[in-house]
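thought: fold this chain, then report.
action: predict
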Amino acid sequence: MKKILFFAICLLTLAGTASAQGYYGPRRVRRPPPRSEYDDFYKVRAGITGGLNVSNTINAYNSNYTTAAIAGFNAGFFLDLPLVYPMSFQPEILYSEKGYAESTPAGNFTQHANYVDVPLLLKFKLSPTFNFLIGPQVAIPVNTTNTYDNGFAVTSEQYYNTYGDKTVLDGVVGVSFDLSRDVELRFRYTVDLQQNQQTQQSGTGAPYNADYRNQVFQVGLGFKFE
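observation:
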């Protein structure tokens, strides 16, 4: 009887010790599941962007008409509005400098034309870091500066307020690379789908070239905020 009692006490002691270790001992920490690309995709993001424009023209009427590219800038704001994975809607408002240079027998001509561009783009997330964008853009003219030199009758710089002139419909195609959750690298090509009817004037006031279409290659950075 004593042996049985002793054996029972030993079992109870062992059970109590095991229970105490289970209660007070280290517990396995539950770690949150790894982040998924879906977690970030369905967040509405706003951002700012800026970069370089390399612009030139496509002449609307004369295939022999040639011009040279000039450098400008673009800067503005954008929204990233998720629709259905992997597609989102990305509207933007950009201040964009366009234009071209031309060498003629009469002299050299350079145009810097400033626009407010409103791209309305569909964005497709093709991989965790690579995106494809396409859509229309409304280009609203703001002002133009024409520079004439080396042979024109009057070597000068002329400024025109073009706000209220014809708004032009553009097409946009581009890609972006997500360098991080908050920074992206952008590459785009933009081209006027309609003729720009702001026929330029020579130093004597007479038009010397045909209407044209702008084309712009853009590279820049975007910074996104939640």
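thought: worth noting. Residues 2-24 form the longest helix (23 residues).
final: tokens above.
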